[in-house]
Amino acid sequence: MQVKNSTFLVTGGASGLGQGTVRRLARAGANVVIADLNTAAGQAMVDELGADKVVFQSTDVTSAESAQAAVDLAVQRYGGLQGLVNCAGILGASRVLGKEGPHDLALFRRVIEVNLIGTFNMIRLAATAMAQGQPNEEGERGVIVCTASVAAEEGQIGQAAYSASKGGVASMTLPIARELGKHGIRIVSIAPGVFETAMMQAAPTNVRDSLAAQIPFPSRYGRPDEFAQLVQQIAENTYFNGTMIRLDGAIRMGAK
Ligand SMILES: NC(=O)c1ccc[n+]([C@@H]2O[C@H](COP(=O)([O-])OP(=O)(O)OC[C@H]3O[C@@H](n4cnc5c(N)ncnc54)[C@H](O)[C@@H]3O)[C@@H](O)[C@H]2O)c1
């Protein structure tokens, strides 16, 4: 799919990996709808990149109505939707047996709700809009990129909820690709290693240092634009479909 003049909806587009994706797609000539809870940061992206190609919609990915409003805005404003990039997510680290008692069940539910159910909510609504569009010369109507994590495969102590949510994202990628293929819609998940974003900056220094020391090469955190570059490549290369791609400097996270 050609990025230029296609319309992408980016959840979590006000910060971190989503923000990097919005910048790259907009600079490549795409129309972008930023769907995020953070209105001030989302609006700042519109101011930075220009209101003709970028629009912000205050969105909670866990809400059916809120997600539908973001999809509707993309269709009304730009005449259709060709891309969805799911970057909205939360961490919610906790031990199963913590110092203050067992893992809070509400926290576990919340992480699944945002990272897994929120991602699925966006997929079902965006795919509905994509399926109504005109196919390109390859028969393609849309592309969906989800953000899993290397924690889907090697979650650390304290990541039961997060790993479960990202494992769910990884596992649903193939069945969705199989189903949506007949509509000309592809879906790929990216499993980032550790990237320099607000989410990682919020982690304790000992956790950050320990993770950085586990990256063979390049021995640094990933940059949001490196994630965005892969999103663009997935969009442009029609043969990417139904899989999870690690983007991680060869990190294999240890137990802690
Ligand atoms: N940073 C990393 O090292 C890393 C590694 C692996 C996976 N990831 C995943 O990448 C994605 C992006 O993470 P990031 O590091 O850019 O984090 P971030 O905290 O910088 O950005 C996340 C964005 O999601 C938004 N958001 C949170 N809940 C939302 C909701 N219910 N509805 C709409 N928006 C919501 C936040 O407002 C924020 O703007 C997440 O899914 C995260 O789990 C990040």
What can you tell me about this protein's structure?
There is one protein chain. The protein has helices spanning 16-27, 39-49, 64-78, 105-131, 151-154, 160-180, 198-201, 205-213, 224-236; strands at residues 7-11, 31-36, 54-58, 83-86, 97-98, 101-102, 142-147, 185-192, 244-247. The chain is α/β, with parallel strands linked by helices and 256 residues long. The protein has one domain: NAD(P)-binding Rossmann-like Domain (Rossmann fold, 3-Layer(aba) Sandwich), CATH 3.40.50. α3 runs parallel beside α4 (105-131). The longest helix has 27 residues, at 105-131. The relative contact order is 0.15. The model has no long low-confidence stretch (mean pLDDT 97). This is 2,5-dichloro-2,5-cyclohexadiene-1,4-diol dehydrogenase. Its EC number is 1.1.1.-.
